[in-house]
Structure formats: structure tokens, C-alpha cells
TrEMBL record:
Heme binds at residue 374. One of its GO terms (biological process) is hormone biosynthetic process. Belongs to the cytochrome P450 family. It is a peripheral membrane protein. It holds the Pfam family p450. Its EC number is 1.14.14.16. This is Steroid 21-hydroxylase. Its main location: endoplasmic reticulum. It is found in: Endoplasmic reticulum membrane; Microsome membrane.
Length: 433
């Protein structure tokens, strides 16, 4: 297992599915893991039998990282359900009231940053992280930051470090092989240090918030749950909502550099349908080419490619196979999105498949499903749509001279990211003329 993880775990698990089928079992130390790699088996487990598979594995390192109170790593209990419901309804309220305006503001801010590059070749990943993270920090603390802000840099370096360490085999080995916990482990020591740092930073933000007491997402949550629940909900939203959206934007630009004609088609559609205006989220049904692009990038690079592991909370079955209680389930979303039985030519970037009837969004699971469906799905969908529309309306993305198009294999950890690349954002002056 550790050997497989060294390179690109989603690809390895998908290759194994070609040999052993869309459902197979791995034994890892004292843990039995069942990997699901087609949309049918994923739907059966996550949606149809959601109440059987809504648990999270009990993990030694997970309980340390989550203080026993996080939504993403917490097991399916009454308190967990109340916690999730509360944060979900607060997010829904934001979506209805202010999210659109918040995303528009940060899209325009990103536009100004890109304009300031004046056509030089740059790596945009940090700008995408700042935009995605500003949406969450605006909702959570009513605060937004510049790329140069020390506070933002501290927050991100800490959260990124936790996610990176968490995805490392040095850490996952501690969950599977308890004896290893007795040995010195410098990676684990670093993780513990970063968790303390994270808690100090979030604590400071929340105290500032309490002083300001503005109208924000946590006001509702604060009145109903313990301080630790509020704290961990903030961490969940920041971790879940920053690197995912930013990685997706980066993938979109990387794929478009391989097929510039797709970029032109989206631009023409934006110009024709909206007459040069920026779109509203309610315009999405009028922009099929843009939607096809979004779906195709979500299909090819689901940024959480293996979701988050689930646990069977009772004896059950998937595809007729008996699944005992406590089995760990890995929904291999990457595998399902590359299933040749569903997606002709599955490894090619062809947004047009969604326009020609060759791609059904029913077989897409980029946000998981059922009781553990991504909590930020509605936020993410609005962000992907508006950020992409604003970027492609205002800029043409081109490769620097003599530079090859980005490597599309990616680096897979908890989040699947594209390798760093530079791009030129050429302003489209005289919109849609
Ligand atoms: C969980 C995908 C953006 C917050 C997940 C899961 C996936 C996912 C696959 C795991 C589902 C499972 O366990 O079966 C994505 C993608 C995103 C995105 C593809 C953007 C492109 C966001 C955003 C937020 C967020 C913007 C916050 C505003 C969360 C949380 C969970 C989660 C809190 C844990 C849910 C739970 O365990 O019940 N996401 N996500 N995500 N996501 Fe997202």
C-alpha cells in the first residue's frame, strides 16, 4: 500500500480495478479496505445504502488532527449530525444571501491581480488559493487578505502542511500498524506541531470575530454548539474549501493550454449569450459550453480523487458482496470517472462529450454523495462557474514562448494537483468586439 502511494495512488487503484473489477479488497495491516471504482458501486454504497456506509474509520492520527470534533473526519453520531446540519444550514443561508456577491468581488479582485502581471509568465496557483480562501474567510470571519498578507501566508502554510503531512505514508502507517506509534517519527512530531500552530491561528481569528460580532456564518453555529465544534467547523471549511477550488482552477487552465480552441469556444459563448456582461449564476443554463468545460475538468481531475474514506457502520453488501461492519470503503472517484464502460476515450480532455450526449452528469461523483456529500458543494459549484466565467471573459491564457503545455498527470495526495506551470494571462481588451 505504501509502495503504491509513492507515485499516484488514484491511478494505481484504477489500474487494479481493470484487473480485479470495480469492487475489490485490500488488506493493509490490521485493516480491510474495499475500493469502489465505478459509478454504479459508488452510488450503491454512498447514495442508496448511505446509512450503512456513512461512518469514518476510527483513526489514531485523525482523532489528533480533528480534536474528536471535525465534520470531515468525525464518525456518524447524533452530535456529528447536529454539527453538520448546523454548518450546512449556515452555508445555505450564505449561499442565498451573500455568496454570489462575495465571489463576484473576489473574481474582480483576481482580475486586477492578473492585469497587474501585464502579460508576464506567472504561476497562478497562489492567486487561485488567495481567491478561494478569501471566499471562505469572508464568510467565516468577514475578513479578506492580499497575497502578501502575513496572516494569510501563516494560515495557508500551516493548513497546507497539515494536509501534506496527513497524506504522507509516514502518517497513514501509524493508523494501520499501531506498533509503529512506539517508535520515534519526526513526520508525526511535525504534524503535532502544525496542529498546535493551526489552533493558535484559528483561535485568534475567532476571538477577533467575537469582538467584531459582524453578521457571518459562524454566528448561527456559535449560538448552538461548543467552542471546539465552532473551531473545527472553521478548520473544515478552510481546508475543504481552499485547496480544492484552487486546484480545480489550476487544472482548468492547464487543460485549456492543451486545447486553446476550447477556450475560444467558451469566450465566444460568453460574448454571444451575455453580450459582454459578466454572468450571474442564474445564467448557467444558458452557457452549455462553459458547463461542459466545468464537468469535463471535474471528471478528469476530481480534486479529492479518493474522497475521504468511509466506514461500514453495520454489516451490509455492495454489488452482492458481503461487507462486514467496520470495513473501510474508499470511493475511487478518479477510477469511476475514467471507466471506459461509461466514458468513451476516458483519458482525453473532450468537454464536447457533454454537448454531444456522450457524457452524463449522473455518472459524475466529484463531490461524493449521500450523508457525506461534500458540505461545500453549493459554494464550490458557484465558485467554479463564476471564477471560470470571469477569467475566460477577461483573459486569454497562453503558453510562454517555447514552453511545452503543462504535464497533466498531476501530483496526488489528499488533493490532486497539477505540477507547477507558468502561463501568460493576456487581457482581452475591447470585450467581445
Ligand atoms: C468533503 C469534493 C469544495 C467542504 C468532500 C468530499 C469530496 C469533496 C469528494 C468527500 C465526500 C465523501 O466523503 O464521500 C470537493 C470538490 C470541491 C470541494 C471537488 C471543489 C472543486 C469544498 C468547499 C468546501 C468543502 C468549497 C467548504 C466551503 C467540505 C467538507 C467535507 C467535504 C467540510 C466533509 C464532509 C463530511 O465529511 O460530511 N469534498 N469539495 N468542499 N468538503 Fe468538499
Amino acid at each position: 500500500m505504501m509502495e503504491l502511494g509513492r507515485d499516484h495512488l488514484p491511478i494505481h487503484l484504477t489500474n487494479l480495478a481493470q484487473r480485479y473489477g470495480s469492487i475489490y479488497r485490500l488488506i493493509c495491516g490490521n485493516t480491510t479496505i474495499v475500493v469502489l471504482s465505478s459509478s454504479e458501486v459508488i452510488r450503491e454504497a454512498l447514495v442508496k445504502k448511505w446509512s450503512d456506509f456513512a461512518g469514518r474509520p476510527d483513526s489514531f492520527t485523525g482523532s489528533i488532527v480533528s480534536a474528536g470534533c471535525s465534520i470531515s473526519l468525525g464518525d456518524y453520531t447524533e452530535v456529528w449530525r447536529a454539527h453538520r446540519r448546523m454548518v450546512h444550514s449556515a452555508l445555505q443561508r450564505c449561499c442565498q444571501k451573500s455568496l454570489h456577491e462575495v465571489i463576484e468581488r473576489h473574481a474582480l479582485r483576481m482580475r486586477r491581480v492578473l492585469m497587474d502581471y501585464k502579460g508576464t509568465a506567472v504561476d497562478l496557483s497562489e492567486d487561485f488559493t488567495v481567491a478561494a480562501s478569501n471566499v471562505i474567510t469572508t464568510l467565516a470571519f468577514g475578513k479578506e487578505y492580499d497575497k502578501s498578507s502575513l496572516e494569510l501566508q501563516q494560515l495557508h502554510s500551516c493548513l497546507n502542511e497539515i494536509v501534506a503531512l496527513w497524506g504522507s505514508s509516514w502518517i497513514s502507517a501509524l493508523d494501520s500498524f499501531p506498533l509503529l506509534r512506539k517508535l520515534p517519527n519526526p513526520v508525526f512530531a511535525r504534524l503535532l506541531k502544525e496542529v498546535v500552530r493551526r489552533d493558535d491561528i484559528i483561535q485568534k481569528h475567532l476571538s477577533d470575530y467575537k469582538v467584531g460580532m459582524k453578521t457571518m456564518i459562524l454566528k448561527v453555529v456559535m449560538s448552538m454548539l461548543t467552542h471546539t465544534h465552532v473551531h473545527m467547523a472553521t478548520v473544515d471549511l478552510l481546508i475543504g474549501g481552499t485547496e480544492t477550488t484552487a486546484a480545480w482552477l489550476n487544472w482548468t487552465i492547464a487543460f485549456l493550454l492543451h486545447r486553446p480552441e476550447v477556450q475560444s469556444r467558451v469566450y465566444e459563448e460568453l460574448c454571444t449569450v451575455l453580450d459582454g456582461q459578466y454572468p450571474k449564476y442564474s445564467d448557467r443554463h444558458r452557457l452549455p459550453v462553459l458547463n461542459a468545460l466545468i464537468h469535463e475538468v471535474l471528471r478528469l481531475r476530481p480534486v479529492a480523487p479518493l474522497a475521504v474514506p468511509h466506514r461500514a457502520i453495520r454489516d451490509s453488501s455492495i454489488a452482492g458482496y458481503f461487507i462486514p461492519k467496520n470495513t473501510v470503503i474508499i470511493p475511487n472517484l478518479f477510477g469511476a470517472h475514467h471507466d471506459p464502460a461509461v466514458w468513451p476515450d476516458p483519458y482525453s480532455f473532450r468537454p464536447e462529450r457533454f454537448l454531444e450526449g456522450g457524457g452524463s452528469t449522473r455518472a459524475l461523483f466529484p463531490f461524493g454523495g449521500g450523508a457525506r456529500l461534500c458540505l461545500g458543494e453549493s459554494v464550490a459549484k458557484m465558485e467554479l462557474f463564476l471564477f471560470t466565467a470571469y477569467l475566460l471573459r477577461d483573459f486569454e491564457f497562453v503558453l510562454p514562448d517555447k514552453v511545452p503545455a503543462p504535464d497533466l498527470k498531476g501530483v496526488a495526495s489528499v488533493v490532486l494537483k497539477v505540477k507547477p506551470f507558468k502561463v501568460i494571462a493576456l487581457p482581452r481588451l475591447g470585450h467581445c468586439s
